[in-house]
Amino acid sequence: MIARVRAGEAEAYAELVRAFTGLALRAAVALGAGADAEDVVQQAFFKAYCSLGRFRDGSAFKPWLLSIVANETRNTVRSAVRQRSLVGREAALAEAEPLIPESADPAVAALRDERRTALLAALDRLSEEHRLVVTYRYLLEMDETETAEALGWPRPGSTRASARR
Predict the structure, then answer these.
(1) What would the pLDDT profile of 70-90 be if each residue is shown by its tens digit?
(2) What is the model's pTM?
(3) Do residues 24 and 38 touch, judged by C-beta distance below 8 A?
(4) Three-state SS string across 23-91, please?
């Protein structure tokens, strides 16, 4: 797919955008972009497109894109006049997810909301590096290799990774 984009096939990049927008949006929200999540994702896709010349052949697109999303989120949060509150982040996360179907059990929905609030509060207490790891690995369900690649770390099991332990 990347080769098609590099060859100038606009529809190929549109396919990538369609395939990864939801994931990128969830990542931006989970990493603190709040109401700016859509802007962050749009900027990340623009930067990814402009940087395709530096994308390594054979690498996975998802971790590479999510590292750009994380950087854009970090830049957006840093440049914000005020820090977003937990309530604002929770509201943005709720908007990024589908609404609870009316047929859902209210007790289950309340428990889910309570867990989401507790999760966001716990994420807020983590360092930025740990927040990225938890978000990529568990919230976005990336495997260890994808997580390491998105963070710019050596792949698990590589000589450099073993030397770090």
Answers:
(1) 999 988 887 764 444 554 655
(2) 0.61
(3) no
(4) HHHHHHHHCCCHHHHHHHHHHHHHHHHHCHHHCCCCCCHHHHHHHHHHHHHHHHHHHCCCCCCHHHHHH
